[in-house]
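User: I'm curious whether this sequence folds into something compact or stays loose and floppy. Could you predict its structure so I can see for myself?
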Amino acid sequence: MTLAMDGAPGMPLNRAMLKSARRRERRIFSGLALPALVLVACILLIPFAWLAWLSLFDAAGNLSTQNYARLLRPAYVGSFLTTFKVAGLVTALCVVFGYPVAYLLSQLPARAAQILLVFVILPFWTSVLVRTYAWLVLLQRNGVINDWLLSMGVIDEPLALVHNLTGTIIGMVHVMLPFLILPLYASMKAIDPVLLRAAANCGASPSQAFRQVFLPLSMPGLASGIALTFVLCLGFYLTPALLGGGRVAMWSTQIADAVSKFSNWGAASALSVALLVVTAVVLWGVRRLTDALSFSAGKP
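Assistant: Here's the prediction. I'll summarize afterward.
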């Protein structure tokens, strides 16, 4: 009792010192983050503000909403739907192909997983342009795949695998697959294997343990991978332009055409701003979904 009473007068002083130390620590971290914040402002915020400003003026230089009104035209609405269709299909296929790979990597011994992980990261060592042209060679009418199918007697005439939606999706899935596997693998590695053994001890079969324990715990990582893949697909330009052959009209290609062919910076800026707003809404929705999944999985 005496010690508590003796120490009581010093408690306000200790709290004041702790608050002062926290404020000093915040100032230090703010100073360390300042160069990065300035860089982000220079390469992201300032160009976006410039695009938003350009989108408010018509071709004659008058303040107008003409550039945003044109987004309601059938051609732009169609390309908008095509953009989301391609992004959705590519993301879904990446989930179908990427989840088993990430699960396999998470269950293998560390050394074997590291070796196989190299093959997942290997495409990053090659330019996207090179990979896209490689798919162009493989998928064309007299390419390797059609020649192989013809020689095997599977088909009677070459398939149209390029310069259409099919070729675009194949090429984009190849590019985007690592972006889903890596965050999903990191999430799966964080799952305690003791939980699966506990489920087995409670009488759950391996499939039940996977469905009821492992799959829910991997949902936050899967949501993060889906968000990253989907958002990157929304603004993807090179692969749709080459493998689509101009027949797959996405907003990214329309932005490039508005600048390179028509020199209409107002229309291109309006498309860019609208696409960025849609991307921000998607990220916000995925963030809310990820928080909900993390809460349901018992994470803080």
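Summary: The longest helix spans residues 11-54. Residues 1-7 have pLDDT under 50 and may be disordered.
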